[in-house]
Design a protein that fits this description.
Layout (H helix, E strand, L loop, with lengths): L9 H12 L11 E4 L2 E4 L10 E2 L4 E4 L2 E4 L10 E4 L2 E7 L6 E3 L9 E4 L2 E4 L10 E3 L4 E6 L6 E2 L3 E2 L4 E4 L2 E4 L12 E5 L2 E7 L5 E3 L3 E2 L4 E4 L3 E4 L10 E4 L2 E7 L5 E8 L4 E4 L2 E4 L10 E3 L5 E8 L2 E4 L3 E2 L5 E3 L3 E3 L6 E6 L3 E6 L23 E4 L3 E4 L20 E4 L3 E5 L5 E5 L9 E4 L3 E4 L17 E4 L3 E4 L10 E2 L10 E2 L3 E2 L1
Length: 499
């Protein structure tokens, strides 16, 4: 077989050949499109190819039309989290479009969060916070190591009980949470808000989650993870190939997007040579002038119509690519485009006329896939119609919303809401006991304001004949003489003593 030599651009050859045919012959079917040497061409109503139209900068010719070269490519320099580590978008050498690079694992003690390796802190407490462990014990949030955490349990002295994470006099407790509310003590232990034997609502002793479960803020014990895909499964996603891997939590999830090599594209979960199938391998069809037969062959990994084979003298191409003579009035159809149909009729001279316009086409190529919604994928069915968006998440990556007490919840790269971060210690507008007799209010930043004596009118009896007010700092003032009648004729003096 002789080697092919290209001496001039293909579209110039086509124009020369078209001129040699004469004005009475058609070159193409009206409405057809094609790419020639990177330029777009369209077939006119009279069956002639238009002059090649060069695509503007930033776009390229695909199936006969100029489209954006980068499409939904990532933005170079942006980072995101994958199950295997941090993945960064870089510019591809061949077209400058962004492609996701290989994931870089995080070092020990850190995990990928918001596109960076950060400390893996399972407990979301603030240093100095206190929390009750039942009616008569409490713990304090400390930061002895890299992350904050709850210290060992401490018991309250005799005559005192726990309220709001600290010990108070018996009978001085106040409600600290809503009955039935759940809070995470750490990654695998949950606390429930119950009415303790003190009579107030507060946190009970921690309860361990079942094996395989973790504690999620606001939810309590929940399944650690759920499989997103099957082991060994692959798919096309974001201009690359994605494999199903076992994630850090032990479940199967979609791994990092692997960019296909230059000159290839992802199809059916694998990187293959960049091309588009245009026909079914082995299929036959008639040329527009019905004088020749074309057979579908594979060229460079994809199917294409091969060189026309002329019919014998006195015959014409009929039916689905057979040479013969048709019967006047006969009609035949063939598929075209995206599940469309085109028809032609046999004329009075026993020769087939041209195929008409391709009608009834769908909206996509059967078997094609594309991203949709929040991390979802939709597939083109056998009817060339897009199916529903499947596997979508609940939010858009990077989106955030408020949660808990002044906390923030962010949408991760799997389109799922993450944990509630940065929560305060109380609900805005709520109040609680403090000091020995005082009250404190929760401000708009979900933090307790300073302790005060409320309306300043609270007092109690003390010693033999005295009384004491609740001072502005929330503690009892010194006892002062006030009830001389209780001294039986003696004087009530000093700190409430009878003399």
């Amino acid at each position: 077989m002789l080697a092919k030599m290209r001496v001039r651009p293909a579209w110039i050859l086509l124009l020369v050949i078209g001129c040699a045919k004469g004005d009475t012959e058609t070159e193409c079917l009206a409405g057809q499109r094609r790419c020639v040497e990177g330029a777009a061409q369209r077939c006119t109503d009279d069956g002639r190819w238009t002059l090649p139209q060069s695509c503007p900068e930033g776009s390229e010719c695909r199936t006969g039309a100029c489209v954006s070269a980068c499409g939904d490519a990532c933005l170079p320099g942006v980072s995101r989290c994958a199950p295997e580590g941090v993945q960064t978008c870089t510019a591809a050498e061949e077209d400058g479009c962004g492609v996701w690079g290989p994931p870089v694992p995080c070092e020990g003690g850190t995990v990928c969060q918001s596109g960076a390796c950060l400390d893996d802190c399972a407990v979301g407490c603030n240093v100095g916070d206190g929390r009750c462990l039942g009616a008569y014990a409490f713990t304090t949030c400390t930061a002895d190591g890299q992350c904050p955490g709850w210290a060992d349990s401490n018991g309250c002295p005799d005559g005192e009980e726990c309220s709001g994470g600290r010990c108070v006099f018996e009978g001085a407790c106040s409600d600290q949470c809503r009955e039935g509310e759940l809070a995470c003590f750490d990654g695998t232990n949950v606390q429930r808000c119950v009415r303790l034997e003190t009579g107030c609502l507060d946190w009970a002793e921690p309860e361990a989650c079942a094996e395989g479960a973790v504690c999620r803020p606001g939810q309590g014990c929940a399944v650690a993870c759920a499989d997103e895909c099957g082991e060994g499964e692959t798919r096309c996603f974001e201009r690359g190939r994605q494999a199903c891997v076992r994630g850090p939590a032990g479940c199967f999830v979609w791994g990092a997007v692997e960019a296909c090599e230059a000159g290839t594209t992802c199809a059916a979960g694998d990187c293959v040579e960049s091309c588009v199938d245009v026909c079914e391998l082995g299929a036959r069809r008639c040329t527009a002038d019905a004088a020749s037969v074309e057979t579908c062959v594979r060229e460079g990994g994809c199917t294409a119509w091969g060189a026309p084979l002329a019919c014998n003298a006195g015959t014409a191409c009929v039916g689905k690519g057979d040479c013969g003579v048709c019967t006047p009035g006969d009609r035949e159809e063939r598929t075209c485009g995206f599940c469309g149909n085109e028809a032609r009729t046999c004329g009075g001279d026993g020769q087939w006329g041209d195929f008409g316009e391709c009608g009834g086409q769908g909206e996509c190529r059967a078997g094609a896939e594309e991203a949709c919604g929040n991390c979802g994928v939709r597939r083109c069915g056998d009817d060339c119609r897009w199916g529903p968006c499947e596997g979508g998440g609940e939010c858009r990556p990077g989106e955030s919303r408020g949660c808990g007490n002044c906390g923030t919840q962010r949408c991760n790269d799997s389109c799922r809401w993450g944990g509630c971060d940065g929560q305060g210690v109380c609900a805005p507008g709520s109040s609680g006991a403090c000091g020995e007799c005082g009250m404190r209010s929760c401000n708009g930043s979900c933090q307790w304001e300073g302790c005060n004596n409320g309306d300043g009118r609270l007092f109690r009896d003390c010693n033999a004949c005295g009384w004491q007010f609740c001072c502005p700092n929330g503690n009892w003032c010194n006892c002062a003489a006030h009830y001389p009648s209780r001294c039986g004729g003696r004087a009530c003096v000093g700190s409430g003593q009878c003399q």
